[in-house]
């Protein structure tokens, strides 16, 4: 997308796919990081239910609630002057049908003023996507590995292999037919993601889906080296901020204990 774009809109996603311009997305859960990523001209910011892991310390995204995500989304929206802000609909807030999906999405649109919402599932979520789009709410889909279904999928398992290929293709077609403006494809073989990216008219956003999707997204704490533990294979760390933060705070701690901080340059005179 053009660096001169004042505000990324849904139509810019379609234009980027047509022009062959890669779309760049990143998660964000607060005002400060959203402002920084916006200055870096990330095209869209996802207030993901991954906040359950990153912000609230849950083992999975499943416990994350709408009431927890809306305040985070509100902060991201206030900081983002250019990026499109998308919010995840959390597990349990849309699965029972289009009415629940619309109720949850309306809450996000009104209470946090996000620009779009994202929900997981292809064929099984097509009716929900269609209802939201008909109501004027832009929807980003999410197929392949869907974290909210982690327990049903048996953990972090690559999707779309073998007999699962046809159901994955059906999910991709269903999301597009329902009216989504883009679709996240997570943890599928590269060749399959490339095939779907060629097949669909809407942009595909990859995360662990190889090199041939129309864009990429990562969780920011993975990208910048704040997350701890084993990283997914598809992550490249561009910084080690976590270690830098530990070292900086440790140095400050030592300076406080030794009396080196504060010094005369940090105090007020009479």
Automatic annotation (TrEMBL):
InterPro entries, per database record: Pantoate_hydroxy_MeTrfase (IPR003700), Pyrv/PenolPyrv_kinase-like_dom (IPR015813), Pyrv_kinase-like_dom_sf (IPR040442)
Reactions listed under catalytic activity: (6R)-5,10-methylene-5,6,7,8-tetrahydrofolate + 3-methyl-2-oxobutanoate + H2O = 2-dehydropantoate + (6S)-5,6,7,8-tetrahydrofolate
Ligand binding (Mg(2+)): 49, 88, 120
UniProt pathway: Cofactor biosynthesis; (R)-pantothenate biosynthesis; (R)-pantoate from 3-methyl-2-oxobutanoate: step 1/2
One GO process term, biological-process aspect: pantothenate biosynthetic process
Entry's localization field: Cytoplasm
Active site as annotated: 186
Pfam families membership: Pantoate_transf
Cofactor note (record): Binds 1 Mg(2+) ion per subunit.
GO terms for MF: 3-methyl-2-oxobutanoate hydroxymethyltransferase activity; magnesium ion binding; methyltransferase activity
GO cellular component term of the entry, any: cytoplasm
Known function: Catalyzes the reversible reaction in which hydroxymethyl group from 5,10-methylenetetrahydrofolate is transferred onto alpha-ketoisovalerate to form ketopantoate.
UniProt subunit comment: Homodecamer; pentamer of dimers.
Name used for this protein in its record: 3-methyl-2-oxobutanoate hydroxymethyltransferase
Species name: Pontimonas salivibrio
Biological classification of the source: Bacteria, Bacillati, Actinomycetota, Actinomycetes, Micrococcales
């Amino acid at each position: 997308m053009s660096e001169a774009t004042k505000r990324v809109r849904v139509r810019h996603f379609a234009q980027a796919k047509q022009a062959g311009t890669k779309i760049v997305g990143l998660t964000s859960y607060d005002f400060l990081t959203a402002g920084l990523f916006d200055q870096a001209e990330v095209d869209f910011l996802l207030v993901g239910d991954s906040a359950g892991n990153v912000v609230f310390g849950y083992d999975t995204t499943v416990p994350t609630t709408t009431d927890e995500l809306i305040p985070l989304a509100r902060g991201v929206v206030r900081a983002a002057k250019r990026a499109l802000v998308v919010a995840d609909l959390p597990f349990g807030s849309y699965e029972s049908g289009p009415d629940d999906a619309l109720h949850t999405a309306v809450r996000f649109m009104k209470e946090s003023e996000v620009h779009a919402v994202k929900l997981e599932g292809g064929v099984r979520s097509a009716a929900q996507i269609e209802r939201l789009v008909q109501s004027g709410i832009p929807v980003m889909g999410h197929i392949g590995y869907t974290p909210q279904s982690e327990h049903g999928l048996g953990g972090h398992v690559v999707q779309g292999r073998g007999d699962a290929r046809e159901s994955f293709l059906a999910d991709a077609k269903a999301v597009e037919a329902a009216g989504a403006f883009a679709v996240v494809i997570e943890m599928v073989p590269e060749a399959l993601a490339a095939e779907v990216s060629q097949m669909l008219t809407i942009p595909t956003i990859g995360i662990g889906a190889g090199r041939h999707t129309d864009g990429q997204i990562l969780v920011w704490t993975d990208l910048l080296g704040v997350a701890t533990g084993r990283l997914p294979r598809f992550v490249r760390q561009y910084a080690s901020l976590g270690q830098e933060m530990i070292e900086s705070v440790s140095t400050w701690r030592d300076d406080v204990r030794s009396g080196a901080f504060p010094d005369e340059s940090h105090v007020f005179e009479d």
